[in-house]
Design a protein that fits this description.
mainly alpha; Serine Threonine Protein Phosphatase 5, Tetratricopeptide repeat; Rossmann fold; 2 domains; 5 strands; globular; TPR-like_helical_dom_sf; Sulfotransferase; transferase; TPST-like
Length: 543
């Protein structure tokens, strides 16, 4: 089954016959040809080479492994895992195959299997830099920064010039609030390869740029290279926008952010999304919850911080996590995964609604207990554990049935400021609504509509954290937050910027700073460039 389409989409060059294997060429020669082509981003020809070998030798482990790496290029991770599992089964002692499979499991968030294979790879070859870095990446993803740092340092001890290790360490140090060290790592990487996209992007995010920053010229030069892929251009335009924004060149900055969105593109269906929320509002009314009074696990440990991204969710979590008896677990995918057991991930919203209506008290308790088991793996001691997945706002009905005593903290921010900040960040493809200003504004309106509904009907304790009021009267808001969580006050919450922990969100730099109000009404700096957003938000924009 081909990984890449036979019809040529935009940006994918047509196959060139001269690049393909000749009759009589040996399997190793054909595989090496494919590797060379893949490095040159000639993915269709590379796939042809690997498939040519597999047609003759279906159990060629190297060809299966290489098909797996190509599947990752095509963003078909499950397919990659299937190929790589076959390669590992054929050659279980191959450290490279183990590393590649572990990395694929990293990409789908299967941390247990990722670490199993990556640790085995290191056991087989303790100097395999790729495996050391991928294991560091795995621990970084779970906010275990100290452990991750150890693996990156081991990788750099093997090869101090490894770009993967330098960039990985730089990203980790940025997460940990050690900006000066992060900048040094990115600088070392750029000294080795001034066109390295990951290092240039990481450097832009790690510190505030000043006038005349040489990184901007390097980013612009990389954009001009014909070898630069569309995916790389997205990162580079975001990096250029961030640098220009730091330099107060707001009109130029917003141009680069818009270019990034135009290149990345997205077919986010706002009409389908609206129908999903329509189904929630129609199905989950006050009577729905009144008919289900004794559902779920009664634990009071879970705290959910919800809202739009860039609405103050990371700041709010950092305040909580500064308390001696509250653990900040970061953005956990668990609630969405559990809701998936009821069909939440299906295109037809009726499937989830029907499953919720049919949910029994026993099943609801089981799902709540599963969630708590995940929390206990993160932290088994703290009185409260904070899950800061913003888009859990969609699933407050589900949370209310499986964890009825959970506390919800709803972060709100001025719609124009909130959406402008979203637009300036390179979120994952899951945030398809961020593809252009109009869809972003439309999405915000749907979010606002759903949250207003939940506030009326969901029997959960919900506490609002308006961003503007938080920065205007921080202590009052912080004390109110901790009180809502049922905890005694801890003065460390006022010194949230001193709390040492790994933070993996676009706000990781900001939460290392004392409270500031310069982000309030920041959208006005961008002038008429934001007119489409303003129009899409309509009545939600303050006059």
């Amino acid at each position: 089954m081909p990984l890449l389409p036979r019809r040529r989409p935009a940006g994918l060059p047509a196959m060139v016959q001269d690049f393909l294997p000749a009759a009589g060429e040996s399997a190793p020669e054909t595989l090496q040809r494919g590797i060379d082509l893949q490095r040159r981003k000639r993915f269709r020809e590379a796939e042809f080479c690997y498939q040519t070998v597999l047609r003759r030798q279906p159990k060629n482990a190297m060809a299966l492994n290489l098909m797996g790496t190509l599947a990752i290029e095509a963003q078909q991770i499950e397919t990659a895992i299937d190929f790589m599992k076959s390669a590992v089964k054929l050659e279980p002692g191959n450290a490279i195959f183990r590393n590649n499979l572990g990395n694929a499991y990293n990409l789908v968030g299967n941390i247990e299997l990722a670490r199993k294979h990556l640790k085995k790879a290191i056991e087989l070859d303790g100097r395999l830099v790729e495996a050391l870095c991928n294991l560091g990446k795995s621990y970084r993803s779970q906010l275990e920064g100290d452990v991750a740092e150890g693996f990156y340092r081991r990788a750099l001890a093997v090869d101090s010039q490894s770009l993967k290790a330098l960039v990985g360490m730089g990203d980790l140090l940025t997460d940990m609030g050690r900006q000066a060290e992060a900048v040094e790592c990115f600088g070392r990487a750029i000294a080795i390869d001034k066109a390295n996209v990951e290092a240039l992007s990481g450097l832009a995010l790690a510190r505030r740029a000043v006038k005349g920053d040489p990184a901007l010229a390097l980013v612009q030069a990389r954009l001009e290279l014909p070898m630069t892929t569309d995916r790389e251009r997205v990162y580079l335009h975001h990096a250029a926008g961030k640098i220009l924004n730091d330099q107060h060149e707001y009109r130029l900055a917003i141009h680069h952010f818009a270019r990034a969105k135009a290149i990345s593109g997205n077919d986010f269906d706002i009409a389908l999304h609206t129908r999903l929320y329509d189904s929630f509002i129609e199905t989950f009314d006050a009577a729905f919850f009144e008919a289900r009074p004794k559902f779920g696990n009664p634990s009071e440990r879970p705290v959910f911080i919800v809202g739009m991204p860039r609405s103050g969710t990371t700041l709010t979590e950092q305040i909580c996590a500064s308390h001696h008896d509250i653990h900040g677990a970061g953005e956990l995918p668990i609630i969405r995964s559990l809701a998936g057991e009821l069909g939440f991930d299906q295109l037809d919203p009726a499937i989830f609604a029907k499953a919720m209506a049919a949910l029994t008290p026993t099943k609801a308790r089981e799902l709540g207990s599963k969630y708590l088991d995940h929390l206990n793996k993160r932290n088994g001691k703290a009185a409260r554990v904070v899950d800061k997945m913003p888009h859990n706002f969609e699933l407050l009905a589900f949370i209310s049935l499986i964890l009825p005593n959970a506390r919800i903290v709803h972060c709100r921010r001025d719609p124009m400021d909130n959406c402008t900040s979203c637009f300036m960040h390179n979120f994952s493809d899951a945030h398809g609504y961020n593809a252009d200003l109009t869809k972003l504004g439309q999405y915000y309106r749907q979010y606002d509509r759903l949250m207003r509904h939940w506030a009326k009907v969901v029997p959960l304790a919900i506490h609002d954290m308006p961003y503007e009021e938080t920065v205007a009267d921080f202590e009052t808001r912080a004390r109110g937050l901790i009180g809502f969580l049922g905890m005694e006050w801890d003065d460390a919450c006022l010194r949230f910027h001193e709390t040492e922990r790994t933070v993996r969100t676009p706000s990781r730099w900001q939460v290392r700073q004392p409270i500031y109000s310069s982000s309030v009404e920041r959208w006005k700096l961008y002038g008429d460039a934001l007119d489409p957003l303003r129009a899409a938000l309509g009545p939600l924009v303050q006059p």
